Amino acid sequence: MSGVVQVAPVWAVAAVLLTVLAGVAGAVFEAVVQARSDGRWGGLLAPVAETARLLRQPRRSLVSADVLLWRIGTAGLPVIAVLMAAVLPFGSWVIADLPVGLVWFNAMDVMVWAAVWLAGWGPNSAHAMIGGYRFLGLALGYELPLMFALTAPAVAAGSLRMADIVAGQETLWYVAWMPVAFVVFCAAVLAFSLHRPFDAPAGSDIAGGVLAEAAGVDRLLLLAGRHMLLAVGSGFAVALFLGGGAGPFLPGWAWFLTKTLVLLGVLLVVRRRLAPLRPDQLMAPAWLVALPAVLLQLAIVAVVAVARG
Predict the structure, then answer these.
(1) Across-strand partners of 93?
(2) Can you state the angle between helices 291-308 and 126-157, rounded to 10 degrees?
(3) DSSP bridge pairs for 6
(4) Rounded to 10 degrees, what is the CA torsion of 254, 24, 200, 211?
(5) Are 209 and 202 a contacting pair, CB within 8 Å?
(6) What predicted TM-score, i.e. pTM, was given to this entire model?
């Protein structure tokens, strides 16, 4: 028994709100850390002020822009984050207990490719389009190591259902004997949420890339989508490698939320210390270091799984 139960569809509203709030928490934490690095206190209300500013700012109109594709791309990131969260066990509850929940997560990750590319292609702007293609280049580097990092906990649990993977860590969290897969997964979370060192698609050297022409609600959706994807990715790291909602004294949802927010904070701090990577700079470490390392990790997990019977 996994101990995770599927709740009524009406709870999907709560899942959406939690995903948004987790993204807001990440944005607030980042603003506070930025304020401290600037030698001042504050930053708690900076995301609120920025949201209010963007809501008042009119959308930008460009000549020959493909407005429909542009809108799909900008709205795509927060929508994909919510769809990812649908299969994520929140302590003892999950919105959709799919037998292939892990595959669903990976499919939604691939949908990020399309959303970012559309956000770059739609405006009919050189800088935005370069940003979109840069993301595809980065995705070629991180996606294959990510897929094998996802495979490791699935092999250990003998299931693609997220609840079974969480239940498989009842005696030992997977991070204890799958550290390489955990590190690769966390790096991929930074990548598909367009955070440093994988923020070249929105780099300042191309005037903001996919963000170059986004203004008003469009820019708000893109920025919110990045933070929501980072928060949901942190939640998946907790479910796949850190025991999900397992922990003493507190209920499962409290442990899951605590672990997710701590990991989210760690990722936001770590990313500030890393320099941006262009797609060509990522290929060698991704394909020659991360991929063989995670394949070796997967081989060890497979041997252990076979030995356990």
Answers:
(1) 5, 90
(2) 20
(3) 94
(4) 150
(5) yes
(6) 0.95
